[in-house]
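We now fix the convention by which a protein and its fold are recorded. Here is one such record, which you should read through line by line:

>
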Amino acid sequence: MKIILVLTILAAVALIEAKREPRFAPYIDVTRLDEFKLVDLKNKYGVKAFSLAFALGGAGGCVPWWGGQVAIDDPTIIKALKALKAAGGDVIVSTGGALGPYLEHMCATPSALVNAYKKILSVTGSTHLDIDIEATVNADNMNQALAQLQRENPDISVSFTLMVQGDDYGVTLELGVNVLKNAVKHGVNVDIVNPMTMEFGTSRASWGDAVIAAAEATHKQMKQVWPQKSDKELYSMLGVTPMLGRNFNGKIFTQQHAQQLVNWAKQKQIGHLGFWSINRDRACPGKAVDPSCSSIDEKDHEFTKIFANFN
């Protein structure tokens, strides 16, 4: 009887882990996937998963495209994703982002948006959907679609990546806390709340301290959304995603800050770490903010190696 009970518990834990988002998944610009081989990054640096940015709408309206310009089923991209999956890797598919056009804008009804989400997940073979909100969306439509998606397939995890207002405040109210409350209202099972710990205001001398303070402030906000959950449960739902190297606000996220964040994340047992982006994890010291490098002095993929220790 004891053996059966143990096996049942282990099976339940395995099911939960299968649904939960990967613990570390850096963002990668899928439209520039030809610069990297995902399997090589996995084997060399221990990156087991990637957040694919971004599945957007395009000229066809409520039809998903990578970056709004590359077909969602582009053969080269799909080949790379299948090779990663065959090697034991995984992917999270991200919608939204800084530029748009959002599927959440282009799809006028929840049912249309559900079909767009299904297309993305089917083509990529993913069960992880990340909604990166940096512009106003119809939260009711979006969250009704996400709830329907999960009702039809309970294995699908949903994360929200949200803008930080300040390290003493947490994520923004309208595009952060209120979106999460709306998700709860419509029955979305939120796996990860992922504050974008970049481009926010701080009075702290250390940007590493500011990033962690913003994460802690977000954790406190989550208590407003899920008052029934313990602090430990909420930390297990918390993600953190800084921007490598130079930020647009002039702050610099260094290798020392990365190690500080990983140490804190392990101590608090948070659910997820990411960064923007693996395309930028290369040196170009003194350069302005650039999509292909960190604008600081570093060894190639130095941040990737530090963050991979979180796994």
